[in-house]
Known about the structure:
This protein is mainly α and 285 residues long. The protein folds into 2 domains: 3-141, Ferritin, core subunit, four-helix bundle (Ferritin); 152-283, Ferritin. Helices cover 75% and strands 0% of the residues. It contains 9 helices and no strands.
Amino acid sequence: MEKRDLIEMLNKDIADEHAAIIRYLVHGWLEGEDTPLGASLLSRSREEMWHMHWLGMIIGQLDGEPNFTPAPYPYDPTNRSTIFKSYVEYEEKLIPHYKAEADRVDDPHIKRVLQREAWESAIHARKFQRILGKLSKEQASGVPGGEPELSKEFMSMLQKEVTSKYNEMLQHIRYSWVLRKDSLLAWQLMDHAMEKMKQIAHFAEDIGGNGIPPKFKPGKVDMSKGISNALRKAVTDVRSSYKRHMKLKEDSEFKKHGGMVINLDLTSQQEQYQAEELEDMDKKK
């Protein structure tokens, strides 16, 4: 297979994995992270993140540009029963898909990764089928999500934070994959990206807890190939988030929510840490 065709194929796979990550995250937050269903879905989403990461690293090694636009995730939202049936079908379709792709490539590492994507998709299908079989009659006929308690304006503000941090995270992931020749730097950037995923959850959990599906809207991704330009853009993004969050801390409505205040205190300290680390990385280049 030609390198260009291989990159195109893997980018389509990334879009599918990206879609699965979002679907399971959103459903998990609607159920509640402290519930058995919510915890299971969040666990599946983390495994899908690894699937996406393996594919992205290969694209980076091939000097390709990763695709960060998620594909559609088709599912029937009628009730939990139809939702989980859709998940089983989605994962089962990936099994022959990845096996066929593995048969088309010669590189042993890429072949193994695609084969692994196939058998882990099979495991996911079995786990979703098991959940489906254990749903009570009430659970099966119901839908995820509680009653909204927060104002629309406040929810809109939380959603803006999810969108901003999501795009900041994607940017760091892109740098990690594309700048992989400096392995330590790539790992540090991915470490920051994983921290940003936790920061997204701090806002998204409260959106989901109010019965509203958090939205993930990918924006424009910086295409810098040079390490210094990438690091400076990353610093700018983190500093911008920090300033915005310092202002948010003084919001009278936000102050009423103790759990959010604690989470934002953690996020802002992490942002300070990340900005200083990124600046040091740039000085060493």
